[in-house]
Amino acid sequence: FDDRDGWIWMDGDFVPWREANTHVLTHGLHYASSVFEGERMYDGEIFKITEHSERLHRSAGMLDFEIPFSVADLDDAKRATCAKMGFSDCYIRAVAFRGPEQLSVSAFPNKTRVAIAAWEWPSYFDAATKAKGIRLEWAKWRRPDPATAPSAAKAAGLYMICTLSKMAAEKNGFSDAMMLDWRAYVAEATGANVFFVQDGALHTPPTDAILDGITRRTVIDLAAAKGIEVVVRHIRPEELSGFTECFVTGTAAEVTPVGQIGEYSFTPGELSLGLMEDYGRLVRRQG
Ligand code: PMP
Question: Gene3D superfamilies recorded for this chain (predicted)?
C-alpha cells in the first residue's frame, strides 16, 4: 500500500505517497499511542466531516495527547487531500500519533504527528451480497470494560482485538465477527455498529462499550424521521433468536444487511433495505 503515486498530507504539508514515512522508533508504533478516523467523500463532499475531526480530537484527548491542528484545520486538510488526489468519491484516513522523540512508556517530549491519506475504496460488498446479508461468526475476543481501556476512543490499540477477530472470521469463511463486551452483551462488529429488528422497532446497544459510530447516529436519525422506534439497550446473544432482521453500520460498511451471526439467521427485509437506501441517498444529498 506504500508503493503508489499520490500525495499524503503530513503535519501540514503534502509529501509524495512513497515518502510519507515515520521512524521505526515511533511511540505510536510501540505503545499504540495512536488514534484515527475513517471517512468517505461522496460526490465531492466528505460526509459529516466536522464530526469526524471532532471525534479525532476527543479520541486523542482520551489518550492524553493533543492534536496540533484545530478541527477547522483538519477539515481543510482533508478536503485539500481529496482535491490533490483528484477524487470526488473516496475513503479518507486521518491518523494522529505520538512521534519518535524518545521511547520510554512515558511520552512527555513526544510530538503529535498527524497524517491524512485518501484512496478509492468502493462499497465493501456488492449489491447481491447485501441483498442476501453478510455472514458473521462470534468473535473470541471481547470489547474491554471502560475501566480497562479507553474504549470510547477510536484508538489503534483497541483494533488489536478487531484484527484478530476479523482474520479468524475470514479464515472460517465469514465476512466479519460480532464481538461481545466484557459483560457478554452484544457489542459491535470489528469495524461497524449493529442494529436488530423486532416487531417493527430497531434495537441497538448503548455506547458504553462500543465506538459511538457516526453512521449509527445517522441511522438513528433516519429511523426517527420515518417514525421507526429505536430502542437503545443491552442485548444478550440468546435474544438474537427473537430478531427478524439485522444490519451493521459504519463509514466503510455503510448500511450492510446481515444474514447470519453464528447460530442465528436473519432475512434482510423492509427496514434494513429501506434504511440502506435512505443512507445512500442522504450521503449523496439526493433528498
Ligand atoms: N465500531 C468500530 C469498531 C469501528 O471501527 C467503526 C468504524 N469507524 C464503527 C463502529 C462505525 O463507526 P462510524 O460509523 O463512525 O464509521
Answer: 3.30.470.10, D-amino Acid Aminotransferase, subunit A, domain 2
